[in-house]
Amino acid sequence: MARPLLLDELGNEHLSARDKGIPERAFGMTVTEFLASGPRLSEFWTPIVTLDDEAIQSNLAVMAQWSASHGLKLMPHGKTTMAPALWQRQLDAGSLGITLATMGQVRTARSFGLDSIMLANAVVDDRSLRYLATQLADPEFRFVCWADSIATIEAMERTLRDAGTPRRVDVCVEIGAAGGRTGARTVAESVEVARRAAASDVVRLAGVAGYEGSLGHDRSDASLDAVRAYLQRQVELHHALHDLYDEDGDVYVTAGGSAYFDLVAEAYADAMAADSGTLWTLRSGAYIVHDDGFYRRISPLDEGAAAPGRLRSAMRGIARVVSHPEPGLALLDGGKRDFPFDEGLPIPRQVANDLGCEWEPLTNASILAVNDQHSYLGLTVETPALVGQDAPLGSVVALGLSHPCTTFDKWRYLPVVASQGSDRVVDLVRTFF
């Protein structure tokens, strides 16, 4: 069980005009003081991104139950949110630890006392390795990183020996695929990396790792076949390394972005049944807030899942209509600096006279394009009168968003409302990008 994170300092931070969207009356207050004052979303400035507390709690429960029912551990990717308060909620829901992507993120996480980390990357630079050596002096610190070449192992050895690491560093051999991301490209190459790691006095062979998400971008037969074939190679590699593993620590087999974790469970099932000692681990991270775009279309726990086992979108953008420059077009005050656009443009869902007012469905509308600080709200030719009537100047539009990983990085604080449509703010989530 991971130790609770050191979150008290987050409540002691003072709010100011430097915090995008925060109401003026909060300036000079600590976060704790502001939350105790009964804040309302209607006080916040647009544009803003909000989180839905009820949906987050549901998503945590759904993913925890799904993982447990398939015999999988969960180390969700913390780079999705870079929000220690949300990491704590994932740990409280039973996660083994948190995955991170860079040693800079590891350093941030350690400053909050996180003691169970998987780095889904290699560590090869002198500064990061020397820092890692200092952290390994904490006997409670569980850390594992990846390596995809003998050169990576040798780079780690040079610095860690010189730094006098107090214990060996757990390393998973990363297997990749042609056209994919990092990772040794074949099982044979991966075995050679593993042999080198197993022979080292500085690193310890700790399993097999990889990322299947770069091999598909939809649920077409071609994408699913590519992902399945890759995951089978992971299992094949794990079996090939059986005699190289020692008994000095944990062994992992890990995969699982937020798109194909059902295929991970399928591919691992037989091997898990025969090998209960290995930590068969998912790293899915986006599930905590899900989305209205990319993951809604591709996740196995959305459209095709049976209620109540579905993930729910727990984030939305809110922007204000600031211009009606021509028929069938309105301009909103939020754009690329505020909302994600790399995996699909925002999706108009609802409209209200202002924050805190009753929301109404917004139909026959779409976001046509986004600039740095504007979104183009377009209406179909059949309903040009919608602009100026259903979305008048000064009204606010609720937007479904696609891709959590490029939503959180745009915000220092995200207000959390009790539930979708609620005006009651129950928390401020602080990010560290």
UniProtKB/TrEMBL annotation:
Coiled coil: none annotated. Residues 314-418 form the D-serine dehydratase-like domain. SUPFAM superfamilies: PLP-binding barrel. Pfam families: D-ser_dehydrat. PANTHER family: D-SERINE DEAMINASE (PTHR28004:SF8), ZGC:162816-RELATED (PTHR28004). This is Amino acid deaminase.
